[in-house]
């Protein structure tokens, strides 16, 4: 019976955490899709690629949410077991020692999830996300083919019979500003540094302008789209795990790595408060203010931590030592105030 009771609490706690997580992550997913898709682009043919690509970004958004999700899960579980009077039965079977066991088991599982996502999954998937996002943004800049026609602003029009793996076949093209007419077996888009190139293979080129009138046969002809610049991939902080960040030479990366360490202690704070909520806090009719206060405290703790990080990056007087001391004092105060509220 005791083993089933422990499993019941841990299972339901994580169930409510993950249900809330899926809700928040779903909203983030939609926001990321909208962020990539800009209104000036035609996106109907790219929407599926965008939707799947943004899935890679979701792990990097999970960890900042985890402490808040832990609190939400604990409040839901508290409401469930108290509304059904299950808390009375649970307290009959659970001693303080058993409650500590549940807490340790919960924290180990939560830390394992937090650590794996923070140090491995989020960085690996974020790199894939940025590469795919870059490809999509560059494609959206050029536009999308429709009905065997591909128009890149008023620069080039390409008419083709079929398209396979990004290559257009049986092509006829018009380059407007140079009065060039091209017929070739195929054409493909390639990136060269910051430029987009159209690479035509095996064809003929007719030029009719005031400077030149000619017809040539070519095996390979490259036309650079001078007015279309591609976006480049830059390695930002989310590409690296904690150890990699601390080993970087750039200070902002190093400090971000130390901030990730502080987030582990922030998770402990959320875990301690959730333990108090589940087993020792009786939700009353007028408890909305108390519940809101807890979230405000946690939110303000994170905001102040962000401010400390800002000082660390921009002030010569606020050292890394001060950053850790300030955060530990902040975490202790946050726990003390939360403990007083939940009495």
Written description of the protein model:
- With 343 residues, the protein is of the alpha+beta class.
- The chain has two domains: 2-140 and 234-341, no CATH class; 145-229, no CATH class.
- It contains nine helices and seven strands; from the N terminus they run H-H-H-H-H-E-E-E-E-E-E-E-H-H-H-H.
- Strands 1, 2, 3, 4, 5, 6 and 7 form a seven-stranded antiparallel sheet that branches.
- A hairpin with a 3-residue loop joins strand 1 and strand 2.
Kindly list the characteristics that best describe this protein.
343 residues; alpha+beta; 7-stranded antiparallel β-sheet; 9 helices; 7 strands
Number of helices: 9
Biggest sheet, in brief?
7 strands, antiparallel
What letter string, H or E per element, gives the SSE order? HHHHHEEEEEEEHHHH
Q: Class by helix and strand content?
A: alpha+beta
Please give the share of residues in helix: 55-70%
Number of beta-strand segments: 7
Please give the alpha-carbon distance between the first and last residues: 30 Å
Average pLDDT works out at 79
State the shape: elongated
Estimated share of beta-strand residues = 15-25%
Tell me the layout of helices and strands.
Elements: H1 2-36, H2 47-55, H3 58-83, H4 86-93, H5 96-142, E1 149-152, E2 156-159, E3 162-164, E4 167-175, E5 180-192, E6 195-208, E7 213-229, H6 242-246, H7 251-280, H8 288-314, H9 320-341
Antiparallel strand pairs: 1-2, 2-4, 3-4, 4-5, 5-6, 6-7
Helix pairs in contact: 1-2, 1-3, 1-5, 2-5, 3-5, 3-7, 3-8, 5-7, 7-8, 7-9, 8-9
